[in-house]
């Protein structure tokens, strides 16, 4: 396929639209089902790079859930605990491959943001993963291949219109990339910097401890940030993102946004939340919204006298503020990556409130000493990578 005609561009008024290779070569993708759009393919090509690099860096299958050219979640193929199965709406008896575990984690990181996502898999989509995708609201998927039975399941989504794209895993783009803005062509070298554990060796803080799990999670955070719209900050735990703050103009707003998402992710594991008597017939998206409102301080929207019966079989009690604080205060072992340096120590202080013990950031601020002092006061291990990861 040398070019692919699109229904329209970013918006319906932007026609005609297509994707093609400037050198007249063959596109590295094949559309196996459906008709992906302009934004779909932007998500597809960004998310594929992310999962490909994650697997190369960790040796584990990887998955990502993308929305509007930034990841809502990214994860590695590690087993799910019973709590995570329940939280991610995975049936207790469901057989999960490592790839399916990666997808469940990526989707489960921020289920509100993942509604209508684009999925990327680092390995060919198998039956176990397709069975999970079947029940989620999603626009499409990119993978280096599909098991026949998996493609059959995916082709049945969205009344047969679900977009399934296959990418050539051997494809390597040119070392220079171009794009046009307002009729002006920009050219730059591709960001081919390899993110490895060697980048985490410069540790200026008093705390030097960096366990293997933290190294893995920091690599996950940094590779995720490489394909997240800047400014961006990413919190990770247990081989998955738990909060991504993307596209903010201020570094502290990135840290706050991602921290709030990480807090919601943790609160969703509270026994009182897991035991919510949600109506079985609720669509998943409605149930996810209900849980999000319940844990984020907007309980009145779902517990009001005239509303709770729409969502619950019996009216649950609100989750008390002091109980929330106690639950969040117990968070530990979270890793955080930042795509650019922290200009002030307030970022470290906010991150620590969400259980962050390990940080990787480029360093290079005129106030590095203040940022280091903030980390030292909180016992946080912080590595200076020396690599900025802006993405636009």
Plain-language structure description:
It is built from 14 helices and 15 strands. α4 links the parallel β6 and β7. The protein folds into three domains: 170 residues, AICAR transformylase, duplication domain (Cytidine Deaminase, domain 2, 3-Layer(aba) Sandwich), CATH 3.40.140; 148 residues, 3-Layer(aba) Sandwich (Cytidine Deaminase, domain 2); 48 residues, no CATH class. It is globular. It has a six-stranded mixed sheet with strand order 3-8-7-6-4-5. With 392 residues, it is of the alpha/beta class.
Features:
392 residues; alpha/beta; Cytidine Deaminase, domain 2; 3 domains; five-stranded mixed β-sheet; 15 strands; 35% helix
Number-wise, the strands total 15
Helix content: 25-40%
Can you tell me the residue ranges where pLDDT is under 50 for at least 5 consecutive residues? none
Biggest pleated-sheet summary: 6 strands, mixed
Q: Provide the β-strand percentage band.
A: 15-25%
Question: How many domains make up the 3D coordinates?
Answer: 3
Shape: globular
Tell me what the CATH architecture of the largest domain is: 3-Layer(aba) Sandwich
Radius of gyration, CA atoms, in whole angstroms: 21 Å
CATH class of the largest domain: Alpha Beta
If strands are numbered along the chain, what order do they take across the biggest sheet? 3-8-7-6-4-5
Structural class: alpha/beta
What is the CATH H-level superfamily of the largest domain?
Answer: AICAR transformylase, duplication domain
Order of SSEs, N→C?
Answer: EEEHEEHHEHEHEEEHEEHHHHHHEHEHE
Mean pLDDT: 96
């Amino acid at each position: 396929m040398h070019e692919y005609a699109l229904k329209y561009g970013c918006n319906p008024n932007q026609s005609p639209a297509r994707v093609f290779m400037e050198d007249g070569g063959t596109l590295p993708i094949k559309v196996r089902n459906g008709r992906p759009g302009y934004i779909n393919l932007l998500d597809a090509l960004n998310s594929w790079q992310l999962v490909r690099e994650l697997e190369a860096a960790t040796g584990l299958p990887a998955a990502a859930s993308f929305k509007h050219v930034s990841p809502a979640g990214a994860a590695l193929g590690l087993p799910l605990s019973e709590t995570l199965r329940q939280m991610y709406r995975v049936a207790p008896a469901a057989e999960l491959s490592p790839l399916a575990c990666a997808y469940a984690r990526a989707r489960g990181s921020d289920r509100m943001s993942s509604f209508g996502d684009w999925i990327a898999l680092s390995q060919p989509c198998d039956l176990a993963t397709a069975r999970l995708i079947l029940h989620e609201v999603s626009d499409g998927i990119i993978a280096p291949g599909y098991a026949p039975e998996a493609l059959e399941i995916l082709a049945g989504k969205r009344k047969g219109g679900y977009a399934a794209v296959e990418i050539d895993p051997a494809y390597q783009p040119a070392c220079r990339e171009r794009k046009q803005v307002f009729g002006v062509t920009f050219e730059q070298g591709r960001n081919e910097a390899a993110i490895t554990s060697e980048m985490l060796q410069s540790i200026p803080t008093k705390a030097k401890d960096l366990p293997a799990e933290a190294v893995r999670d920091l690599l996950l955070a940094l590779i995720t940030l490489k394909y997240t719209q800047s400014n961006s900050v990413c919190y990770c735990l247990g081989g998955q993102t738990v909060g991504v703050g993307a596209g903010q103009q201020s570094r502290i707003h990135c840290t706050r946004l991602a921290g709030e998402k990480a807090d919601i992710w943790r609160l969703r594991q509270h026994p009182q939340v897991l035991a919510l008597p949600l109506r079985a017939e609720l669509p998943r998206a409605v149930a996810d919204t209900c849980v999000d409102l319940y844990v984020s301080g907007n309980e009145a929207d779902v517990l009001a006298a005239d509303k709770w019966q729409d969502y619950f079989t019996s009216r649950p009690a609100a989750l008390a503020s002091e109980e929330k604080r106690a639950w969040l205060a117990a968070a530990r072992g979270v890793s955080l990556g930042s795509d650019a340096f922290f200009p002030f120590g307030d970022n470290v202080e906010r991150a620590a409130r969400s259980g962050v013990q390990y940080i990787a950031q480029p360093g290079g601020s005129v106030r590095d000493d203040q940022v280091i002092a903030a980390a030292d006061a909180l016992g946080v291990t912080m590595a200076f990578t020396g690599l900025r990861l802006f993405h636009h």
